[in-house]
Automatic annotation (TrEMBL):
PROSITE patterns (UniProt xref): ZF_RING_2
Keyword Zinc: yes
Organism of origin: Sinanodonta woodiana (Chinese pond mussel)
Superkingdom: Eukaryota
Pfam families hit by this protein: zf-C3HC4
Stretches that traverse the bilayer: none
Alphabetized UniProt keyword annotations: Metal-binding, Zinc, Zinc-finger
One MF annotation (Gene Ontology) recorded for this entry: zinc ion binding
Gene3D superfamilies membership: Zinc/RING finger domain, C3HC4 (zinc finger)
Stored InterPro entries: Znf_C3HC4_RING-type, Znf_RING, Znf_RING/FYVE/PHD
Protein name: RING-type domain-containing protein
Amino acid sequence: MASVQIGSDDGPACPFCVGHFNAPRQLPCAHSFFQSCLQSYISSKVENNSILKQIECPLCKQVTTPTRNDQPT
Ligand SMILES: [Zn+2]
Ligand SMILES: [Zn+2]
């Protein structure tokens, strides 16, 4: 146990909080995040409480249309 690797055999981890998933939200680009972390990310992008039509994946910048469940409450 000399080193710690990100992305170990335990499976993917959320890049926001580096926690391991039990219920990840996967974007079309195949990157996964916690739903709550993705909502926080989206809310940081939203101005004036508007609905965000598109988001960029924070990892690969692929433009994605968020579902209604992804919108911050
Ligand atoms: Zn997270
Ligand atoms: Zn991505």
